[in-house]
Specification:
mainly alpha, 265 residues, 2 strands
């Protein structure tokens, strides 16, 4: 870490500490009735006002977590969180589009992501948000089952590549927990009668694929992935060697021409 980054890091830590100290002092003063300051024309409660303003500012956050704990979540804030989650998914998709890929400006991709995510969520009603949260719809199925399945597959492959066989036990625990989660959701929806036949088949398929992957397909997939990496590394090495031989041959010919060694009258 260079000096500039260290300076920014330490300045950020100092600023956070100062803000924490100020907020703590304001809360303590508010609890004790504040500090009355006489200005000659009257008095005002300085820290008491700060504490009240701070409590008013964080009240929506505390109310949200209170309703979240009781299961009665505010659909407005849930819609905002859903917008953020959908934006991340859309941005990852935009990264793979050829004409909007990595060579494009980040600002262009952010603007495209923001527009698509906004119009995708702008006309969602509270009832639709509620249905998505509870995975009753196709989009809820994608967010609750399909995307976690894909993430777990790549997470398993990456972890196995970096840590070898020692990670297999941990991965089995993670996959078993995911399978039980899907079974729980499927049984719950079936008992409540809030799931269509298509989504029922979708969740059932995810459960079957998860079981097949963790017990039968994981070793084969990781082995094939390793073999493909070895092939690509070997191909890159051969291409690099071929390029170096061609470069050395050209340099040798140029040197011989320059020194007259390659000259024939």
């Amino acid at each position: 870490m260079d000096k500039k980054r260290k300076g920014i890091f330490y300045s950020s830590i100092l600023l956070l500490l100062m803000l924490s100290f100020t907020f703590s002092l304001a809360l303590v003063s508010a609890q004790n009735g504040g500090v009355n300051i006489n200005t000659g024309g009257g008095s005002f409660n300085y820290f008491g006002d700060i504490g009240q303003n701070f409590q008013s500012g964080i009240k929506p956050v505390t109310d949200f977590f209170a309703t979240w704990q009781s299961g009665d979540i505010n659909t407005g804030l849930a819609k905002v969180l859903f917008l953020i989650l959908l934006s991340l998914v859309i941005y990852s998709v935009v990264e793979t589009i050829p004409f909007l890929g990595k060579n494009r400006n980040v600002a262009v991709k952010v603007i495209v992501t923001a527009i698509v995510a906004f119009f995708a969520t702008a006309y969602l009603t509270p009832q639709e948000i509620y249905a998505i949260i509870l995975s009753y719809t196709s989009l809820g199925f994608v967010l609750a089952a399909l995307i976690p399945f894909v993430i777990l597959v790549f997470f398993s492959i990456t972890l196995a590549k970096e840590h070898g066989g020692g990670a297999k036990v941990f991965l089995k625990i993670v996959w078993v927990a995911f399978i039980f989660f899907l079974i729980y959701k499927l049984i719950l929806f079936w008992l409540q009668g809030n799931i269509s036949t298509t989504l029922f088949v979708g969740y059932l398929l995810m459960i079957i694929l998860s079981i097949l992957y963790i017990f039968f397909l994981q070793d084969t997939l990781i082995k094939n992935w390793f073999e493909e990496d070895v092939k690509m590394a070997k191909l890159r090495y051969e291409q690099l060697s071929k390029w170096k031989r061609a470069k050395n041959k050209k340099e040798r010919e140029e040197f011989e021409d320059f020194t007259g060694g390659g000259y024939t009258p």
